[in-house]
């Protein structure tokens, strides 16, 4: 893939997975498991009603969202005691971080952090 393991980037994995490459799909699944583990830890701690996934993941659509949702359901602590938070992709995908940084000063007064 991509001329050697040191040259592989996320977009190479994405493209190969979309073409059905088994190795790339396994990488996507492993990555999704780690993302879901982090999201389940956040959920167990903060109990949000919704988690918004942005950045490059959001631009990949269901390729990443579906396995993240699957792993999330398996990793969430005591899912029978509370409703699952909704996992959604950010509307602005890869621009979400930049937009958030741009509006952050507007909300600086909300917290003393």
CATH topology tier name: Nucleotidyltransferase, domain 5
Distance between the termini: 44 Å
Order of helices and strands: HHEHHEH
Radius of gyration: 16 Å
CATH-level-4 superfamily name: ATPase, nucleotide binding domain
Strand order of the largest sheet: 1-2
Q: CATH class, please?
A: Alpha Beta
User: What does the average pLDDT come to?
Assistant: 86
Principal-axis shape: flat
Overall structural domain count: 1
The largest pleated sheet is described as: 2 strands, parallel
The poorly predicted ranges are none
Structural class assignment: mainly alpha
Pfam family, one: ROK
InterPro entries: ATPase_NBD, ROK
Describe this structure in words.
It is a single chain. The chain starts with 9 loop residues before the first helix and ends in a 10-residue tail after the last helix. By secondary structure, the chain is mainly alpha-helical. It has helices at 10-18, 22-46, 56-59, 62-75, 96-103; strands at 50-53, 86-89. 53% of the residues lie in helices and 7% in strands. The chain is flat and about 50 Å long. α2 (22-46) crosses α4 (62-75). A two-stranded parallel sheet has the order 1-2. The mean pLDDT is 86. The chain has one domain (5-110): 2-Layer Sandwich (Nucleotidyltransferase, domain 5), CATH 3.30.420. It contains 5 helices and 2 strands; from the N terminus they run ααβααβα. It holds the Pfam family ROK. InterPro entries: ATPase_NBD, ROK.
């Amino acid at each position: 893939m991509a001329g050697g393991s040191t040259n592989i980037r996320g977009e190479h994995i994405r493209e190969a997975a979309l073409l059905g490459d088994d190795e790339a799909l396994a990488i996507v699944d492993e990555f999704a498991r780690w993302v879901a583990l982090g999201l389940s830890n956040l959920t167990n701690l903060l109990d949000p009603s919704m988690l918004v996934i942005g950045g490059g993941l959001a631009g990949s659509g269901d390729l990443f969202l579906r396995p993240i949702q699957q792993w999330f359901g398996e990793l969430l602590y005591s899912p029978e005691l509370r409703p699952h938070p909704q996992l959604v992709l950010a509307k602005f995908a890869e621009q979400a971080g930049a937009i958030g940084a741009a509006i952050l000063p507007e909300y600086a007064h909300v917290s003393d952090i």
